[in-house]
């Protein structure tokens, strides 16, 4: 069964450093998403992406964040200058379209900012 | 952001019995609802969904009920199995015609289900 994959599974970085989290969505999916879950809190929407453009973003997704689909398979989330409060699980998700709306999630990347 | 609430942080049931997980929402624009199951150190796994044009959807042991007037949905698992023990998240999205949402899911806090053998 096709699945969303994410790398790395765990990323440790120093505050102020840039990180890139990588995702390979399911191959026939057209919509891509990033969510995060800070320990003990809800899963929160960050951004949705379609047709090489951001469709929607939350207030969390400020200028420090960017997304890109650099080739036909990868979908990346970049945090330019990490802060301690960026420590969280980051989940990538993808869906075929909006009508069906079932988003399939990857296993997550645990980001630890020291 | 309390648009989706799961008021029970945990639920414990005996194997073979019914598990009922509840979810309330406040945003009347939500028109699609999903339940996800999550194990530690894994991503949410899709279980079942329901559109606002329906009031029930069934898939094997899992049934989701939607009460739009009460802005309430529930997930029934019958019979419950020890392997069902996980965190269950309710999620909702809104994409009415002309709306600005592009599939953003709003999640509840989750309910930890423990099924005892």
Description:
The complex is a heterodimer of chains A (about 110) and B (about 120). In chain A, the strands form two sheets. In chain A, strands 2, 4, 5, 6, 9, 10 and 11 form a seven-stranded mixed sheet that branches. A four-stranded antiparallel sheet of chain A has the order 1-3-8-7, with no helix packed on it. Chain A is built from no helices and eleven strands. The mean pLDDT of chain A is about 95. Chain A is an all-beta fold. Chain A has strands at about 5, 10-15, 20-25, 30-35, 45-50, 55, 65-70, 75-80, 90-95, 105, 110-114. Chain B is mostly beta strands and about 120 residues long. Chain B is built from no helices and eleven strands. The N and C termini of chain B lie far apart (about 35 Å). In chain B, strands 2, 4, 5, 9, 10 and 11 form a six-stranded mixed sheet that branches. A five-stranded antiparallel sheet of chain B has the order 1-3-8-7-6, with no helix packed on it. Chains A and B meet through strand 4, strand 5, strand 9 and strand 10 of A and strand 4, strand 5, strand 9 and strand 10 of B.
Task: Outline the secondary-structure elements.
The complex is a heterodimer of chains A (114) and B (117).
Chain A: E1 5-7, E2 10-13, E3 19-24, E4 31-37, E5 43-50, E6 53-57, E7 65-68, E8 75-79, E9 88-95, E10 104-105, E11 109-113
Parallel strand pairs in A: 2-11
Antiparallel strand pairs in A: 1-3, 3-8, 4-5, 4-9, 5-6, 7-8, 9-10, 9-11
Chain B: E1 4-5, E2 10-14, E3 19-25, E4 32-38, E5 45-51, E6 56-59, E7 62-67, E8 72-77, E9 86-93, E10 106-107, E11 111-116
Parallel strand pairs in B: 2-11
Antiparallel strand pairs in B: 1-3, 3-8, 4-5, 4-9, 6-7, 7-8, 9-10, 9-11
